[in-house]
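in:
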């Protein structure tokens, strides 16, 4: 197996993958370079979707809508001739202190980050079972184990902590049905969601506290997702692969 064949012929859906500079797009493009055919889902299409690389396609999907998730997954499976891999990457972030956190803010965070993963995974389940040897990769966060405190508040940390528990429970439940379920937990990643959001001086201090001396790139996270989706991790399920440069070693 060459590196270009790691996902040869795999049929993949990646949520939250429309933005050209985001983690989801980096995952989709990395997977395509390794032989996969990928449908990118997102709630809206920004500039650049029309220029998707070879092997990539796009469909609109609001992960807070069960009907949208079912329709998008069914359409992707029909377009691809089945579904082998689902990457649940769609998400939002926020750092509102508890005293200012409205119930609608808390529920919105859970609805997108955690319930959205439930909706897409449940919609994809019949197709993944039929494929055999399928993989689900969920996007958690360092905030889940660290307790937020950077760009993520308590509601964000809770949504990603739930993602980790959901991943482990599904790994136990779906392993006998031929589906591996794992998670990636990134630290600070340079994306449009994070760039320019730190107070003056904090970004430099954070970089200095990371043993590898830099923030992650979307491609760093994509490499971890590639490992978990490929046969290289064939005996891994229920794990959380941390990608934080050593900032949070525990």
């Amino acid at each position: 197996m060459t590196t270009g064949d790691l996902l040869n012929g795999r049929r993949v859906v990646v949520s939250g993958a429309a933005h050209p500079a985001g983690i989801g797009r980096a995952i989709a493009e990395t997977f395509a370079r390794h032989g996969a055919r990928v449908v990118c889902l997102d709630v809206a299409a920004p500039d650049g979707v029309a220029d998707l690389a070879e092997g990539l396609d796009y469909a609109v999907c609001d992960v807070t809508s069960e009907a949208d998730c079912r329709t998008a997954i069914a359409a992707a499976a029909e377009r691809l001739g089945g579904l082998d891999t689902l990457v649940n990457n769609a998400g939002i972030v926020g750092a509102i202190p508890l005293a200012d956190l409205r119930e609608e803010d808390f529920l919105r965070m859970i609805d997108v980050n955690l319930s959205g993963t439930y909706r897409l995974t449940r919609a994809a389940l019949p197709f993944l079972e039929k494929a055999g040897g399928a993989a689900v990769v969920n996007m958690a966060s360092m905030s889940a184990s660290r307790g937020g405190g950077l760009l993520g508040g308590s509601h964000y940390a809770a949504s990603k902590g739930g993602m980790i528990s959901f991943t482990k429970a599904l790994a136990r439940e779906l392993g006998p049905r031929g589906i591996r379920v794992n998670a990636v937990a990134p630290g600070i990643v340079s994306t449009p969601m994070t760039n320019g959001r730190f107070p003056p001086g904090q970004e430099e201090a954070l970089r200095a506290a990371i043993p590898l001396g830099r923030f992650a790139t979307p491609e760093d996270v994509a490499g971890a997702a590639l490992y978990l989706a490929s046969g290289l991790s064939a005996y891994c399920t229920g794990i959380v692969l941390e990608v934080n440069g050593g900032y949070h070693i525990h």
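note: Helices lie at 23-33, 66-80, 103-131, 142-146, 154-174, 202-209, 218-229.
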